[in-house]
Design a protein that fits this description.
about 140 residues, alpha+beta, 2 helices, globular
């Protein structure tokens, strides 16, 4: 099980379920998506080498044709095990179909291309910011 984020049908982020390795994963609760903008010039932009061009502020984001594919959580109780189970591998959703598994190799190549060409900062590689050790989700 993985949470995948795509923009224009190109994967930009993937969060794998590594619960068996003791890593937390949002499998049994409802999830939401949030976006934010902050000044991280001193640490997130290649160690401060790349500065944000604030002359274009304020920044405005709009979404056109936004689609969120997810299993709707139809319960008013966050810990409703039956409602969560209905979102499991029942085969009723497009992401559970065999054709999606065939797409995996192509998507992995696309994700690597995005990371190689657009990723400026990866907190899972920032040992300077986390001298006591990287966050759990960053390990194998």
């Amino acid at each position: 099980m993985k949470a995948k984020f795509l923009v224009d049908d190109i994967p930009i982020r993937e969060y794998a379920n590594k619960e068996r390795k003791g890593k937390p994963y949002p499998r049994k609760q409802a999830m939401g998506i949030y976006g934010s903008l902050w000044n991280a010039d001193d640490w997130a932009t290649q160690g401060g080498r790349v500065k944000t061009n604030w002359t274009n502020a304020p920044f405005v984001v709009t979404f056109n044709s936004l689609e969120i594919d997810a299993c709707a959580f139809l319960s008013d109780k966050a810990d409703d095990v039956d409602a969560v189970a209905k979102c499991g591998k029942s085969g009723q959703f497009w992401w559970d179909k065999p054709v999606v598994k065939e797409e995996h190799k192509r998507r992995r190549k696309q994700l690597k291309w995005v990371r190689d060409n657009f990723l400026v900062y990866d907190y899972c590689r920032d040992v300077g910011r986390f001298p006591q050790g990287l966050p759990k989700e960053c390990h194998g």
